[in-house]
Each structure stands twice: as C-alpha cells, then as structure tokens.
Amino acid sequence: MSLANKLAEERRGRLAAERLLEQKQAELQAANRKLGLHARALSEEIVETRAEVQTVRDENQRVKSDLTEAHQKVEIAERRLWHSIQTIQDGFAVFDADSRLIAANDAYLSVFDGLEAVKPGVRYVEILQLLTEEGIVDIGDTTPAEWREMMLDRWQGDAPGPRVIRLWNGQYIKLIDRRGHGGDVVTLALNITDTVHYEKELKAARRKAEAASRAKSAFLANMSHEIRTPMNGVVGMAELLGDTELTGEQRMYADTIRNSGEALLAIINDVLDYSKIEAEKLVLHPEPFDLERCIHELVMLLQPSARDKGLDLLVDYDMFLPTRFEGDPGRIRQVLTNLLGNAVKFTTEGHVLVRVVGMERNPGDPAQVHVTVEDTGIGIPPDKLDHIFGEFNQVDGDHSRAFEGTGLGLAISKRLIDLMGGRIWVDSREGHGTCFGFSIPLPVAEETAPEDMSLPDWLRRAIVVDDQPVNRAILERQLDALGIQVTSCAEGSDALDRLEDTDLVLTDHNMPGMDGLELAAAIRDAGHDVPIVMLSSNTGFAEQDPARRHLAALLQRPVPRRTLFAALRGIGRAGTHEQTAPPPEVPAPHTVPTVQRAMRVLAAEDNRTNRLVFSKMVKDLDIELEFAADGQEAVALFQRLAPDIVFMDISMPGMDGCEATRRIRAQETGGRRVPMVAMTAHAMDGDADDILAAGLDHYLTKPLRKEAITERILAACPADTRPPLPAVQTSG
Ligand code: ADP
Questions:
Q1: Which of 21, 51, 258, 299 is most buried, with most CB under 10 Å away?
Q2: Which structural domain, as residue segments, surrounds residue 510?
Q3: 703 in ligand 1 pocket by Cβ < 6 Å?
C-alpha cells in the first residue's frame, strides 16, 4: 500500500474517528444534561424530605416531653395519695378481686409487727390465719377456726357490715370493708380504742351517778323518817301542852314550838317532794273532786293570816264552768297552797284574788282550766321573773329576805303542773303586785245531781255594798248570771238612799266609815225590812254583835257560789229573817247497858318519847292502853290482850311493824278482824302500798295528831264496850 493510500486511509480513519467522537460527545452532553436535571430534581426532593423529617422529629420531641411531664404528674399524685394514706392513723388496705393484698399503709401493717408474710400478694385468708395463729387478735371464747370462718363469711358478703375486733394489746379496731367495681375491696381499720374507753367511762360514770341518786333518795327518805320521829315528840307535846292550863306567855311559847315544828315539817315535805319528782317517783292520782270547794277550803285556811294582815281574800269562780273535775286534788291543792301562800306572804295591803275560768271545747274533751292568783304585793323585778321557778331560787332583795321559805315551792309547782300536762306563768310589776297563773286540762267529772239555780220569784233587784271594786265586780257578775239586777254602792250611806228600789241588800262587813253591821242597823232604823245578807271574813266576830239579828244570812267570805245560791234561796221576803245554816246536829246520846268493859287499845312503838306522846294524846279517852316496845312483843300482847284496835309503828328494831302485822293477821282465824293502824314517819310514795299489803287497814303519818288518833279509836269502838268519850261527843 502506497503512502498516499496509507495517508488517505489514515485521514478517512481519522475523519471517521472524529465523527464518532463528535457523536459520542453529543450523546455525552445529552446524557449529562439529563443527569443534571435528575440531580436537581433529586436534591429538591431531599430538601423537602429533610424538612418533613425535621417536623416529625419536633413533634416526637414534644410528645416525649409531654409524656415525661404527665408521668411526673402521675408520680407526684401517686406519691401524695400514698403519703396521705400513710399519714392517717387508721389502717388502710386494698385487695384485688381474688382477695389478694394490693397495698396497705403502715398503720395496717403495724398490727402484724413486721411479719414478712404480710406484703402485697398475700391472701385475705392467710391474713386471718396469721391473726389467730400469732395471737394478734383477741378472739374471746370462740375457737380460731370459728373466728376465721365468721370473718371470712362476712368478707365474702356483698356488703359486709362494720365489725369491731379487739387486739391482744387491748386496742379496739373497727373494720369497714367496701367492695368496689371489678371486685376490689378497700379496707379501713379504724382505731376506736379511745371512743370505747370513753364510752366505758361514761357508762361507769352514769352507773355511779344513778347509784348516787338512789342513795340520795334513800338518804332523804331516811332523814325524813329520822327527823319526823323526834318531831312527833316536839309537835305532839306542844299540842298537848296547849291543852293544859297556861298563862298567856306560856301559851305563846307552846304555840311557837308547835308552829315552828309544823313549818319544819312543811320544809321536809317540800324537800321530799322535790326529790321524788327528781327521781321521777311522783305519780298523780286522779279522782273526781270539786275544784271550787277545794279553792274555798284553802282560802278558809289562809283566811286567819290574811285577816291578821288586813288583806281581802277573794275567789272569782267562772259562773259557767263546772266545778267537779277528774284530777289529783292533793297535788292541785299543793300548787294552789303554794301560790296563795306566797301571795299572802308577799302582800302587805290590798287583796289576793283567785280567779278560775275555763273552757270546755267539745263535750267529752277535758276542759282547759285557767287559775290565776293575783295579789297587790311587793311584786317581782322583771329580771327575776324566770329565775323564781328554779329550785332554791328566791328574789334576792331586802324585802324578800324578810320572808322565810325554801325557794322550792314554785319549782315543785312548776314540775307538778308540767306533770299534769299544763303550764304555769307569772306576770308582775314591782311594787304593784304579782299574778301567777296556771292552765291545766281537766276532764269534767259527772255531776252528781243537776244544780238547782232557781231563786225566789220576788228576788229581782239587789244592792251590793262593798268598798272594794274587785269584790263588787265579782258579786255583780255572779248575781247578774242569776238574772238579778244589781246596783253597786261603794259605801253604806249610798245604799241607804236607794233602799226603795231593792229586794235585797248584800253587804260587806269591814268597810271604812259605816261597816256592814252598822249599815244593817241603820237600814232597820230607817224602817226598812229588806232582807240583808252580810259577807264577812270574820263571821265569828260578827256573830257576837247585837246587830247580827238584822241579818237574814251571815256568810263567810269568800263565799262559794253554791253557798251563796243556797243562802239566797233560803231567805224570806222582807220581814222574815231566817238563818241559813241550821245549828249543827248533835248526835243522840247512846243508850247504853249499865256495865260495860273499856275499849282495849294496843300500841306498838319502840321510841320512848313517842310512847309518852301517844299516851298523853289518848289520856282523855276512857280506854285500856297497853304498849309493846317491838314487833315480837306486839304479837305476844295481841294474843293475851285481844285488843279492839292496834296502833303499829312500822320501823322498829327486830321485828318491824309489817312483819308483826302479818303474824297477827295469821293468828286471826275466823273471828273479827281487828282494825290495825300503821304509824309511820315514812312519807315516800309506795310505802303506803307496802303497809296496806301487810294487812294494816289505815295509815297515820308522824307526827301524830290527837284528833286523828281519837277518830280511829272511836271508829273502832265495838258495841259491847264503853264509848271512849262521854255520851255527847266533842271531838273536833
Ligand atoms: P319560797 O316562798 O319558799 O321562798 P317559792 O319557790 O314559793 O319559795 O318562791 C320563790 C320566790 O319567788 C320567793 O322567795 C319570792 O322571792 C318570789 N315570789 C313568789 N311568789 C311571789 C309573790 N306573790 N309576790 C312576790 N314575790 C313572790
């Protein structure tokens, strides 16, 4: 091959290579471009992904920190809760549905004193087992197995009730178990040792207080007995002394001894009553009684002391209120005595007025009876009004100190009225007067006979003469209700001017200026024969006056309605001056056989002074008296003497009166039952029942009264004996 060829071939070759190179370069460029585009897309994608990763990473971070915070909070809450549970002094534990312990506080665990077995996971039965085996719990008389069974039964119940267990060291634990959702059980073990001890102390204190109160009542009963026994000597002898020939001064001494003795007895009775009410021993004994009469009787009793002080004692009993009720007359009288007694005691001038009004709501229902006792006395300061119903409380002031008293009367009255289902109150103005009132429900008792309220036809108009407006008002009201037209005059001279228009003159006795008797004389002097009725608080005195003959009737003031009606019915029309009260009937003398034995009286009494008092009290009686110094002797004497009556002291050394009576009664087979009369200083309720149950027929409380003894002896006098008193009996 030529060079040229070679060169041409080489050039062709080179040219071809150059074209290939160019082509390859173009291809490379295209590929490069594509690669560049791809790389750009890729890097854009990377940037995007990176941003996303960052976001996710941030979120993750936040969640993580939130979680940590929440976790911390849970931990704190749990710690606090547990801390709280730990700090409570009582045991706390939670069990799961399989009765396995989940957790318990130290107080709960402390009971087990470090026993390792008691830890989370331990079963309730195992705990019970440990409690008995280790002697942690005091199971009393039950066996460990029984105790565990009982505790398990309770645990398995749906709602186990609380249960108190006692630990070996004397601590009391009250278990309270609550079953929750899913069967978990929460247990609270409360340490109630202090409460139990406190309760025991309280019980012991109460027992002690009750024993003390019983002792107090017994002491009071005994003291009352002990005081009454010598008082029997004091009052009885003073009474006897009064019956003997005495100079004025000696009589004053004897009366003082007797009055003081009686006052002391009243105090003893007050104290006794109060302690009875305190001990809830006082019971009411309702029976039919006449309230109006009861008030009038009381007023009569107080009349002498009121008269001595120049006080008027007035009664205003509601015209339309029945007088017979069912109630405890003794207790109602006691309240009234206290209120009236106080009113007279604390009043130096003016009057004391008892007013009774009432309402019967429906027939058959108890009537609500209001009684007020109004006085014009020293009054009670407002700040003391509530205070006086308390025990031993008196209005402390110079004036009240001048009056004696225990300060128990109103306290007793209040309790009695409470007991009757009523209420008591007081109104007072210091220096002007006081009004005590009480209101009690009282069933109306059957009237024995319908009352005759009719008056003579001629009696249409009356003149009432009284210086006291209250008195006039009461009489006006009473007469008005009877259909009589009343003219009121404050003084006698007024009445003298009006005699023409009247059928009757009703006058007071004591009046300033012309008194009632002088008025009566003046009326007659003036030539009038109108009937005159005089009301006096001292009829005994008026009875002696020559002017008495002018009166158609002389009535003791205050006058019960019935007595007033009866008197008005009994007077004759002008001119015929009759007396209302016929002279008391004298019992016809016994016609007696000539030779009769004397009555035989046996008295058993251990106290020498009292034997003396007794013998002196019956010294005027024509009887044969024998004494026994104790029960034994009484039984023996009874057989030998065959007495007609026996007086029996109850408390005597050796054989007492009740026992002696039982023995005597046992001896009395067939024949006559001899009346037996108990003499006792016991004044507690219930004593009377015991005494009567022993076979005694009657009951006399010491200090004995001459009159009461005489009455008993006379009542027991058999037909074949001489009457112990001369034929015309003058007892009483
Ligand atoms: P006592 O009369 O034995 O002191 P009471 O309980 O009956 O006891 O009365 C208590 C006190 O109430 C009396 O001491 C007296 O201060 C006062 N009091 C009672 N009634 C009246 C009255 N009618 N007027 C003034 N004060 C009275």
A1: 299
A2: 461-570
A3: no
